């Protein structure tokens, strides 16, 4: 059972909308990203579907348009998420990451996915590493968490590579086809 917590971030405190790494740009989604996002998710459906509860069936342009409008309307979104696209220097969409303000006092959660054509190249690890450092510098934040299913070895490897420690493994609702129903809760402290 998921427990709903209030926000950890004070009003007006947020991660930056744009983060520049050497050859990557992590930035807030823009309305003009609609088709690139739709095409990346569509191309990566078989890769993402087993692990992403929000991708139970192939996504439509209309669903992506609604999500784009949500992301453009507020920062954070109504569900207290700071959603980013991850782009190569030439503008190619490589994946996505989000900072979720859903853990209550002191904590933020980071989620991510990678375009199948760019998986295994460190894109997500570098992006999540940058967001982790930034999140831990925000006022009143003392921990960042990554939650994944025990069977999702690729997602767990990102947490491990970034120095998160495995806090616990416990039963949780199975929401996507490949999930085992056992959640891994990785934590990194300030």
Question: In words, what does this structure look like?
Answer:
By secondary structure, the chain is of the alpha+beta class. The protein has a domain of 125 residues: Aminopeptidase. Helices cover 26% and strands 28% of the residues. It contains 5 helices and 8 strands, in the order ββαααβββαβαββ. The protein has an 8-stranded mixed sheet, with helices on both faces. Strand 3 and strand 4 form a beta hairpin. Helix 1 crosses helix 3. The longest helix is centred in the C-terminal third of the chain and has 14 residues. The chain is globular, with a radius of gyration of 16 Å. The mean pLDDT is 95.
Q: How much helix is in the residues?
A: 25-40%
Could you say which structural class the secondary elements and strand pairing correspond to? alpha+beta
Measured between the Cα atoms of the first and last residue, the distance is: 28 Å
Instruction: State the low-pLDDT regions, or none.
Output: none
Give me the CATH fold name of the domain at 18-142: Aminopeptidase
Please, how many helices? 5
CATH superfamily of the domain at 18-142: Gcn5-related N-acetyltransferase (GNAT)
- According to CATH, what is the class of the domain at 18-142? Alpha Beta
Summed over residues and divided by their number, the pLDDT gives a mean of: 95
Q: What is the overall shape?
A: globular
Order of strands side by side in the largest beta sheet? 1-2-3-4-5-6-8-7
**Percent of sequence in beta strands:** 25-35%
């Amino acid at each position: 059972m998921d427990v709903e917590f209030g926000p950890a971030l004070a009003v007006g405190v947020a991660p930056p909308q744009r983060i520049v790494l050497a050859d990557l740009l992590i930035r807030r989604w823009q309305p003009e990203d609609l088709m690139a996002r739709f095409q990346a998710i569509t191309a990566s459906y078989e890769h993402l579907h087993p692990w992403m509860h929000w991708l139970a069936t192939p996504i439509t342009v209309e669903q992506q348009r609604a999500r784009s409008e949500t992301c453009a309307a507020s920062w954070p979104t109504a569900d207290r998420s700071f959603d980013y696209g991850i782009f190569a220097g030439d503008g190619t969409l490589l994946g996505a990451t989000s900072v979720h303000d859903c853990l209550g006092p002191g904590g933020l959660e980071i989620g991510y996915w990678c375009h199948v054509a760019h998986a295994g190249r460190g894109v997500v690890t570098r992006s999540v590493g940058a967001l982790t450092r930034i999140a831990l510098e925000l006022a009143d934040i003392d921990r960042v968490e990554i939650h994944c299913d025990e069977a999702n070895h690729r997602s767990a490897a990102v947490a491990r590579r970034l120095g998160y420690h495995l806090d616990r493994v416990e039963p949780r609702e199975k929401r996507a086809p490949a999930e085992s129903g056992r959640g891994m809760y990785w934590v990194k402290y300030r």
